[in-house]
Design goal:
The protein is 38% helix and 15% strand. With 196 residues, it is an alpha/beta fold. The chain has a single domain, classed as Rossmann fold (3-Layer(aba) Sandwich). Strands 3-2-1-4-5 form a 5-stranded parallel β-sheet, with helices on both faces. The longest helix is centred in the C-terminal third of the chain and has 22 residues, at 172-193. Pfam families: DUF218 (PF02698). Residues 18-186 form the DUF218 domain. This is DUF218 domain-containing protein.
Length: 196
């Protein structure tokens, strides 16, 4: 996973971007009561977006994500992310919601449509989980969008040579392998389907 995830980008090195595109997939839509936002792994996608906005690095935030597969009774993922941002003080006028995408390919297609129609020729920044950045980037590039990336939601820590890290097995390693394998299968399927 250390090899797969791109290096973090220091905040101080970030330029200004007119629009940050954030792919959803980090919240639980069916959890109740619905008076708050429940996050899964990868909440850094939206918390780092908030930090970038507060530091004056981004002007608009496009959040993309719908109901997902077979989640009819859930709220839309992009609406949940917008709710979090507004609770944190981001004005409604800054947030653009794309509430229909059900997967990474559709995130890219529908986000590209919004960018081309409402923010043509501007500077874009793609924000998603580090392990997911390669597939997300390839999908958005396939739509002809020129952008920079800001990986977030890291599953890894820095590499160490500690005895515990090198020798003692950890159950969490199985989860990381599962995530990595799923991402590789997703990349392969997206290539076959012509999404990337």
């Amino acid at each position: 996973m250390l090899w797969w995830e791109p290096e973090p980008v220091p905040m101080k090195e970030m330029a200004y971007y007119d629009v940050a595109v954030v792919f959803s997939g980090v919240t639980k839509g069916s959890k109740t009561p619905r008076d708050r936002i429940y996050f899964n792994m990868g909440a850094d996608r939206i918390t780092h977006t908030l930090q970038l906005y507060n530091e004056g690095k981004i002007g608009k935030i496009l959040v993309s994500g719908g109901l997902g597969f077979e989640q009819v009774d859930n709220s839309r993922a992009a609406d949940r992310l917008k709710s979090f941002l507004t609770m944190a003080g981001v004005p409604d006028s800054v947030i653009v919601v794309e509430p229909h995408a059900i997967n990474t390919h559709e995130n890219a297609v529908k986000s590209a449509e919004l960018l081309n129609n409402h923010f043509p020729g501007q500077n874009y920044l793609l924000i998603t989980s580090a392990f997911h950045m390669k597939r997300a980037s390839l999908c958005l590039k396939r739509q002809g969008v020129d952008f920079d990336t800001f990986p977030a939601g890291y599953l890894t820590d820095r590499s160490t040579l500690n005895f515990d890290d090198l020798v003692i097995p950890r159950a969490s390693a199985i989860d990381k392998w599962e995530t990595l394998f799923k991402e590789w299968v997703g990349l392969g399927m997206y290539r076959v389907m012509g999404y990337i």
